[in-house]
Write a structure and sequence with these properties.
mainly alpha; 7% strand; 5 helices; 2 strands; single chain
């Protein structure tokens, strides 16, 4: 409920007031008409006005963390299947046993067309 209230407040900031009394007084002042009875004016001030159609169109239900995790798992499975998935005949690639821990990085300088070898960038 709190997430929905925050989202609606973001969509309609003009409807925010410091207290319930200030909100009631603002709705009462907006709904005052000479031809209305005082009781009708008070009843109209007690009811919240509906959001305008553009604010309702902009509203999207907030996504919870569990929904985000479920969607991430589904996307990961779909991506895994799209990339080919598990191949039973192929072994999982592993780094070579004698590979150096920090291989040198090759930097190609475009002006002189020479290569410089640097042991690590960081």
């Amino acid at each position: 409920m709190g997430q929905v209230a925050l989202e609606l407040a973001r969509l309609h900031p003009a409807g925010l007031h410091g207290s319930d009394k200030a909100a009631y007084e603002a709705r009462f002042a907006r709904g005052r008409r000479r031809h209305k009875r005082r009781d009708d004016q008070k009843a109209a001030a007690r009811v919240l006005p509906p959001l305008d159609s553009s604010a309702r169109k902009l509203y999207r239900k907030p996504v919870t963390l569990t929904e985000q995790q479920a969607r991430a798992e589904r996307d990961a499975v779909d991506r895994w299947e799209d990339e080919g998935g598990y191949c039973p005949g192929a072994d999982t690639p592993r780094p070579a046993a004698g590979a150096p821990a920090n291989p040198p990085v090759r930097i190609i300088l475009p002006l002189h067309r020479h290569t410089a070898v640097q042991p690590a960038l960081w």
